[in-house]
Design goal:
This protein is of the alpha/beta class. The chain has 5 helices and 9 strands, in the order ββαβαβαβαβαβββ. The protein has helices spanning about 50-60, 75-85, 95-110, 120-130, 150-155, and strands at about 25, 35, 65-70, 90-95, 115-120, 135-140, 160-175, 185-195, 195-205. α4 (about 120-130) runs parallel beside α5. The radius of gyration is 16 Å and the shape is globular.
Length: about 210
């Protein structure tokens, strides 16, 4: 679930609806079955359970003890799903006021020692977060308008924020051009749900990226 002020997002699916409200369920792990509040605000929507199940099936073996970055965090469903499955730490970046309030509640209740919430613009944070350390997983489900996904991936491409074999999950409108440079990123897996497409990426190295997920 992602939105930044001034951007329109695709219509919502599931219990939250297009205007937010309701709850989203953590699928599996130690927090499995726990629910996250969806802020009531135009355009806010959760990442669907089926998409999260698919993504974390891809990431089996890479989540435990990982450092996780959830940009445009929204409900934080992706970050909390990772923490539930054994990730060591998650940094969640969000700017929407109502979403931030819900995220603060979730962090305090579910993972006060392993989740850190950053209030602010995701692109701006990427540009000044050189000392944040390296992340093993990054989730990037940005608003569809404004090429935020492309700008965030560009900021990540040559940054020190990703571990050498980091995996990045990104979503974009199915009808649009993928938001990444295929010379810089290798696509490992893709999925489609409704009007959105998601891909699991890794940076292309000097001798080619690894083929294993």
């Amino acid at each position: 679930m992602k939105r930044q002020a001034g951007y329109q997002r695709r219509p919502g699916r599931g219990s939250a609806g297009a205007r937010g409200g309701g709850q989203v369920r953590i699928v599996a792990g130690e927090l499995g079955g726990r629910r996250l509040r969806v802020a009531t605000a135009p355009g806010l929507r959760p990442t669907p359970e089926r998409t999260r199940e698919t993504l974390f099936n891809w990431l089996q073996g890479r989540v435990r003890d990982a450092r996780v970055l959830d940009l445009f965090a929204g409900t934080g469903a992706l970050a909390f799903e990772a923490l539930s499955r054994g990730a060591a730490e998650a940094v969640l970046v969000e700017r929407h006021r109502a979403a931030l309030a819900a995220l603060r509640e979730a962090v305090a209740e579910l993972a006060p020692d392993r989740a850190r919430l950053v209030a602010g613009d995701a692109i701006g944070w990427l540009q000044r977060a050189g000392d944040a350390g390296a992340f093993d997983l990054a989730f990037l489900d940005a608003p569809f308008a404004g090429d935020l996904a492309g700008r965030a991936l560009l900021a990540l491409t040559d940054s020190a924020l990703l571990a050498p074999e980091a995996r990045v999950y990104v979503e974009w409108p199915t009808a649009a051009t993928p938001p990444f440079d295929t010379a810089a990123w290798t696509v490992l897996k893709t999925t489609r749900a409704g009007d959105s497409t998601g891909a699991l990426l890794t940076r292309t190295g000097p001798e080619g990226a690894a083929t294993a997920v």
